[in-house]
């Protein structure tokens, strides 16, 4: 039973930009806090701060997010409650623009993994929103996450793209967390998408939907303003699959 209370870290990760990573991070964090009633932290590691923008309307940008990695600031001291019950946010801020350089100079690839230990007694689930690409931040995430979620837009090359990523990560770090595949921004009017879906009918899917785009103006997870919409159902199903996977892997 004790394993049920072990914090698990899920990183939303990928080489490509604009494929729905931050959208996944926010909605999966909502599902964790709301549907699974987990104490959840969304940690925005991307200086673009999209997840922070979506979750923290009116929040004052500070300049402390990078100092966590230099060990000048405790991560917990930066965690703030959101409007979603049980969901806290560790916001990105402009200081993260210097994070790549700091991590390179530190040369400690497990710094993030160590920082997460200080959060274990506070949270059950941690969602990490990562910047795109194989950055120093990505290297940290590879050592810290229990699961990588890589949103893949449907194309016949989707399987190859994921396999190539796994090979690259293995070469780079010697290991990588499991990468259960997921389709993002599915548009069933497009023939290429239908072909890719037919190749992998078992992969979870999140459709392209204007209600998801509305998150940008409402600044809320889609489940918080459209609880019965199919998009909310798709994020809920994806989250349930992630919980099953974590349970299978022992947590
Ligand atoms: N399922 C979807 N349906 C419609 N629009 C979507 C969907 N997912 C994401 N978007 C929109 O696509 C844009 C990019 O999404 P998002 O910021 O989540 O991508 P990202 O992978 O995090 O990008 P980056 O690599 O720049 O961090 C946003 O405007 C978002 O609202
Ligand atoms: Mg993003």
How would you describe this structure to a colleague?
With 251 residues, the chain is of the alpha/beta class. The protein has a single domain, classed as P-loop containing nucleotide triphosphate hydrolases (Rossmann fold, 3-Layer(aba) Sandwich), CATH 3.40.50.300. It has helices at 21-34, 50-55, 75-78, 99-106, 111-117, 136-144, 158-173, 191-199, 210-213, 215-218, 222-225, 230-248; strands at residues 8-12, 40-44, 79-81, 87-90, 125-129, 147-149, 151-152, 182-186, 205-207. A six-stranded mixed beta sheet has the order 3-4-2-5-1-6, sandwiched between helices. Strands 7-8-9 form a three-stranded parallel beta sheet. α1 (21-34) crosses α12 (230-248). The longest helix has 19 residues, at 230-248. It is globular and about 50 Å long. The protein binds adenosine-5'-triphosphate and magnesium ion. Adenosine-5'-triphosphate binds next to α1 and α9. Adenosine-5'-triphosphate (ATP) is lined by residues 17-23, 46, 48, 50, 132, 185, 206, 208-209, 212-213, 216.
Any chance you could write out the topology, listing elements then pairs?
Elements (H helix, E strand, L loop, with lengths): L7 E5 L8 H14 L5 E5 L5 H6 L19 H4 E3 L5 E4 L8 H8 L4 H7 L7 E5 L6 H9 L2 E3 L1 E2 L5 H16 L8 E5 L4 H9 L5 E3 L2 H4 L1 H4 L3 H4 L4 H19 L3
Parallel strand pairs: 1-5, 1-6, 2-4, 2-5, 7-8, 8-9
Antiparallel strand pairs: 3-4
The site of magnesium ion (MG) has 5 residues, from helix 1.
Outline:
This protein has about 250 residues and is α/β, with parallel strands linked by helices. The chain has a single domain (about 1-250), classed as Rossmann fold.
